[in-house]
Amino acid sequence: MFAEKYTSALPAYVQGALLRLSDVFIPIAVLMGTISGILVVIFNQPTYILLALVGLAVFLVTLYSAQFGLLILVFISYTRFSDVFTEFHNSPSIAKPFLVLLVVSILVRWVISREAPQGWYVPTVLFGMVLIAEFASVIYSPVPDRVFARLYDDVKDTIIAIVIVILLQSPSAFRRVIWMLIFSGIFLCSLSVFQYVTGTYDSNYGGFALSMSHQIIGTIDDFRATGPIGDPNFFAQVVVVLVPISLERVMHEKRTMYRLVALWCLVVSVLTVIITYSRGGLLAMLVGVIIFFLYYPPRRIQVIFIILAMAAFFAFLPQNYLDRLFTLTKFFGNSDTSRVEERSLQGRLSENLTALEMVKANPLFGVGLNSYKYLFPVYSKKLGLALVATEREAHNLYLEILAETGIVGFAIFSLIMISCIRVILYARDLLSRHEFYDYAGMVVGYLGGFASYFFAAIFVHNAFPRYFYLLLGIAFALRLVAQNTIAVKNGGS
């Protein structure tokens, strides 16, 4: 009665939404608040009890709306929400139980609706082939314990990718995932930019805006944004994905408020890439933007804004940034390691050459999953590249895969990448042919972000595979997204 009295002047669909809210969610909220208060008094563990109740609420809402669970999964994966709370706030893992709840909710919905999940078979087979190749390396790896540690993470991330494929099947879900990525970018990048502008490096903003002093050029060190990841180059790799995605929404979104939100993400994402000082990140960002403009060349009026944006971009560049970028000419202009004076580039070149040496020695199956770091001192000494026996990473995803899993593992990886790119291009072409230009544009934006991430992978290894599998899961899902979008249109006609 209360809700009906105060909503009578609103449109019918708004009245219905508010009535459902008052009849269902408000009583549940009151009940959970009461229960949480009682449990806090009894057990005196408010944090754990709150997390348990939130988890229960999310589980129940996910049973009602699978898309809600999908969006939460994307958010906590992209922001490393669970890892941050575990590391900085002594909280139990949120991601693991949530993933279990999400899988259970999928099975429950399957049993209740008797509709089997679709689109998961091909990616599951491909990911399964990867896991088999990785598991086989236990036999010949000198450090099998490291193989199992990495294999455990890859299994979890594979499940995340398959869950995304199962849940991301409708055009509305795809649109919401795109906006969740944008909101995740706003959350992470706004904190980093604010920290840089205010110089408040003494605060990590809850663990989501770390900044550390790293080498910039020569002997000059300065603070570089590392986000919730803890490394500037990996953080840049994650952020560059958001630039083409948000740029596409700025160009094509019809609602002014949403366009402004996308613009917010675009601005802070670009600025964040700058304050990471990542050279590979900057190049990857340019690759993603170029891919977008190949599909959607800017109009004359847009060219003016692009020129102004570039002027503002160069005005914001931190001190020594251009000097750091110019060091790339030394790297590409010299093949002799001893002639590359910039020490970080010299290290990268040494790591790449060492990876190639591992491939030569073990071409078919590699040296073993997660074993490059352990074997780096041995192989680098053989090449005369390292005088001190220290473990180092490959800093190149493709050479890392080739060195650790050999030609067999790299062939499977290549098959996955080719399949993802074909699915993305197929989805874009299908949506364009049927005049779903808005969704086609979002697919192009995602293509730019996808390409940016894997271009940046030339300069970094796969230290955070969750992002890797998250992006692959979204890519594989686009086939059904496009097909179901067309099916809805045909069904409506």
Could you please describe the fold and organization of this structure?
By secondary structure, this protein is mostly helical. The chain folds into two domains: 2-116, no CATH class; 131-327 and 394-492, no CATH class. It is 75% helix and 3% strand. The chain has helices at residues 2-7, 12-43, 46-64, 66-78, 81-89, 95-113, 121-136, 144-167, 171-198, 232-240, 242-252, 256-275, 279-295, 300-316, 321-333, 343-361, 372-383, 397-433, 437-456, 465-492, and strands spanning 210-217, 220-227. The chain has a two-stranded antiparallel sheet. The longest helix is centred in the C-terminal third of the chain and has 37 residues, at 397-433.
Number of helices: 20
Q: Which structural class fits the helix and strand makeup?
A: mainly alpha
Indicate the mean pLDDT.
Answer: 83
Principal-axis shape: globular
How would a textbook summarize the main sheet? 2 strands, antiparallel
Q: Biggest sheet: strands side by side, in what order?
A: 1-2
Radius of gyration: 24 Å
Q: Could you give the distance between the termini?
A: 40 Å
Helix content: over 70%
Give the helices and strands as they follow along the chain.
Answer: HHHHHHHHHEEHHHHHHHHHHH
Number of domains: 2
Strand residue percentage? under 5%
Number of strand elements: 2
pLDDT < 50 stretches:
1-7, 335-341
